[in-house]
Amino acid sequence: MIGAGGAGMRAAIEAAAAGARVDVVCKSLLGKAHTVMAEGGIAAALGNVDPEDNWEVHFQDTMRGGQMINNWRMAELHSRESPDRVYELETYGAIFDRTPDGRILQRAFGAHTYRRLCHVGDRTGLEMIRSLQDRIVQLGIEVHMEVTLTRLLKHGERVIGAFGYNRIDGTFVAFRAKAVIIATGGWGRLYKVTSNSWEGTGDGVGMGFDAGAEVLDPEMVQFHPTGMVWPPGVRGILVTEAVRGEGGTLTNREGTRFMLEVDPKKKELSSRDVVARAIYKEVQAGRGTEHGGAYLDVRGLGPEQIKKKLPSMYEQFLRLADVDITKAPMEVAPTIHYAMGGLRVDAETGATTLPGLYAAGEAAAGLHGANRLGGNSLSDLLVFGRRAGGASAAYQRDVGLGMIDERQVADEQQLMLLPLVGSGKENPYLLQQELQQAMQEGAGLAREEKSLKTCLDQVLELRQRAARIHVPGSRKYNPGWHTARDLRFMLTIAEAIVRAAIERRESRGAHWRLDYLEKDPALGRVNFIAYSDGGRVKLKTRPVPEMPPELARLFADSASASQPPAPRPPKPQPVRK
Amino acid sequence: MSSSTSAKQSGANGSIVLQVFRGDTEGGQEQRFEVPSLEGMVVLDAVHYIQAHFANDLACRWNCKAAKCGSCSAEINGRPRLMCKTRVDEFAGREIHVGPMRAFPLIKDLVTDVSWNYEVNKQIPGFTPPPSEPVPYRMLPEDTERVYEYRKCIECFLCQDVCHVLRNHDDKSAYYGPRYMVRIAALEMHPLDTRKRTGLLHGKAGIGMCNITKCCQEVCPEHIKITDNAIIPLKERTATDVYDPVARIARKINPFRGSPATADRVEAKDGSSTGPQRFSVKDVVRLKTRGHRLARVGSVLPDGKLEVWVLHMNGKVQHWDGPKVLKMSDVSNNYGPLDDVGIGAKLVEQYITEDHAGQHGG
C-alpha cells in the first residue's frame, strides 16, 4: 500500500479485514496526507436534508459535471456506495455535523442538485483522516512513515514490489509484495499557484507510468475557483467551496455579482470549471480586485454562523491576510486543486493495466471525467479505496511472492545517487520553480496551441537539465535530494499533461482552449491515454465506455445542456481551424 | 534565480535575518541567513527560500502550508509555533531564531523524532461503540457539540513540546502528554463510546502529572482549550471513577472503610463487605496487618499479590521501605496514586498527614 491518505488507509483497512498482511508506506508522518486539506465535505446522497435526493441524481450530477467522458460504471458505483461509506466512517469514530433530529447534516455545493455534502464545519478531511488513522491503529496495521518509494519492481509484467528510501537516514529499502496499491494522490505541485501540499508530485502515477501502466485523462487538471490571492506568501491556499455553499457571493471590482449572468440557475454554485473561468474572465476584462481576483463575501451569514460553520477560513484570513471575514470580503482567484487524470483502472476492482498493481483515489482516474464536483473526491477515496483493498486482498490469495530482480534495484540506486555524486550544476528547487512557472503559463486555466507547444519545449528542456542536478550534503534527511527524485516524476506527468492538452482540440470541463471554444462531439467520445514507450511519453485514444440503456435514459432530455458554454475570452477571438 | 535578483528584491522590500539551527545528533549551531522579505511572508516561506538558494539540504518537515496538517512545528524565538502560521512581520526587523522542538530527540536541523507520540497513541483503546448499535448512527447535536473541539487537533505536537512534564523528563514514561489527553477526551465524550479510560488515565497515562499550568493551551494553533476543556474534565472523571465520592466522604469519617476494590473482596473494619478492589502502580494502600501504616504499590504481580513499598514516618521526614510482597487481603484501602502533583496526590497527601497525626495522637 503506497500512500496513507484517505484512499490508502481505507484500502488498507479493507485488505486487512479480508485477512491480508498489509504494510502502509507513506512519505510523511501518518495523518498529514493531503486529505486533511479537504474542507467542504463528502458527497453522498443520504437524502437527510433533501429527501428527494438519491443515487441516480448524484450519478447524473457527476456525469454532467465530468462532461460525459467519465467512466459511467465508476460514477454509478460511487453514487450507489458512498452513503454506506459515510455511515461506516462514523463506526470508526467520525462525527459529522448533525440535523436537529440526530442524523448527518448536509450542505449545498457546486453543481450538486440537492444539499448533499456531509461535513464537519470546514475541516471534513481532517475528521476523515483521523477516523481512518484511528482505525488503522486499532487494527494494528503496520505503517512505514517517511519512506518514499521511487520504483515499482516487476517480474515480467507483474508488479511484485517496490523500491525506495527512508527519508530520515537516506537508507534504501525494498518491499516484496503480492500486490501493490497506489494511493499517492495528485500532482498539484506542478503549478505555481496551487492549493496542494508538497506531496502532490505525482510520484505514484509516475512510478506506474514508468512500469508500463496507462495514464488516463492527464490533460484534465482542475482549477478551484477560490484560492487566496493576497498576500503573495499565501497565494493559492484554498478557500473552501463551503463559503459559497453557505451563501457566499462573488462580485467584481464594480460590485457586480457576475455569476448571475454566467449561470442564472446555479449562480455561485455552478461547477468549478465554470466559476473559475468566470473569475478569470472578470480579471482579464479589467474588473478584478486590487490584487487580481474577485471578492467573495460571506458577511450575510453573520459573525456567529461564520465562526461556527467556517472556523478555519475565519482563522486563515485573520492570521495570514489580516482580513476579518465577518467584516470584509475575501479576495479570491483560481488555484490548482485536483488531477482528474491518473492511472487507468478497472471500475470494480481498481486494478490497473498491470497485473498486481492497483490504484485508488486521486491517483486513479475515470470517475470525474473532465471536471470533478466538490465533495466527490472524499467519497471517491472511500468507495474505491475499499474496492481496491478488497480486490487486491483477493488477488494476493492466489499468487506467491515474486523474486526481486537485482538489476532493477541497482539501476534505481544508481539513479537515486546521481545528484549526490554527479558533476552537475543544476539546483533541484530552482528547476522545480521553473517547471511550475512554465506549467502555470503554458498549461494553466486558459490554454492554446501556441502556449502549450512553448510549454512542451520548456518541459523537455527541463527534463534534460534534471539529469544534471547536483545536491550538496549527505543522504540524511536531505530535502534537496528528495526534490531531485520528485522532479523526475513531475516532469513525466507534465509532459503527459501538455501532450494530451495539445491533442484535445476542444473546450471541455476543466480543459479550456481559447483556440477551440466549443465542444467537439467526436472528442467527447474519447479519452486520451499516456503510456511509456521506452521511457518516452506517447499518447493514444480510447473510446469512452458506453453507458447501458437503463442509465443512458437518465440523460435523454438534454445530454449536458445544464452546463453553460465556455465563456468567450475577453481578447480578440483566434481563428478556428 | 541569481543572486542579483535576490539583491534586487532585498533592495525593494528590505530583508529579514534568520538564525536557523543546523546540526544533528552530533551537535550543531545556529546559522545566519538573510532572506528578501515579501508582504505577508511567513517563517516557512523564509525557510523555503533558504533551502532553494543557500542550503539545499536544510531539513524541515512541512506539508500543507495552510495550518491544517501540523507538520512544520518548530521553536521560533523560543516559542513552539507552526512555521506556516508565523508571519515574519510580527518580529519587526528583529532576528528570527528558528530551532527544532526541544522535547523530542533531534534528527537533523529542524526535524525531530516524534515517533514516541505515535507509540503512545497505540496504547489508547480506540472508539468502541455498542456492538448492537444500529447504523446509521443517531446522535443529537447537543451530545456531539463538545467533541468537535477535541477533534480539531492537527497533531502538531506543540503542546507536547511545551509540556514541562515531557520536556523535563528524559524518560517520557510518566505522562502521555496534552495531545493524548485531548484524544482520550474525544473518545470518552463521544456519545456512543462504551469504554472507560479512567483507569488508564489514572495509571499509565499519568493524568495526575499535569499541574494545570495551561502552557499547552496557550501554544495550540487550533485554539483548543486543552487544559480547561480536556484535562480538567478528565481529571474530574478520573477522580469520580477512581475515588468514588461517596467512598471518599465515607473515608473521611472512617479511614478504614473500604473503597472500590478488584482482585478480591476485602473486609472493612466495620465488617461490611465492599466491591472488588483495583490497584495500580503508585496507588497508596493501607496495610491491615501493620496498624496504620501506608504503602505504595510498586507492581501488581500476576498471582494477585502486590509488591509494595511501606511508608515510614520519622518526625517530619518520610521514607519508603521495600519492596515487600503482600497478599491482596493484607491491604485495605486504596487511596489512589501518589503523584507529585494533581488531584490524586492532594487527596493522598491529606491522608498521609491524617495518618501521621493519627499515629502520633493515638
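Confidence is low (pLDDT under 50) at residues 1-12, 247-276, 339-362 of chain B.
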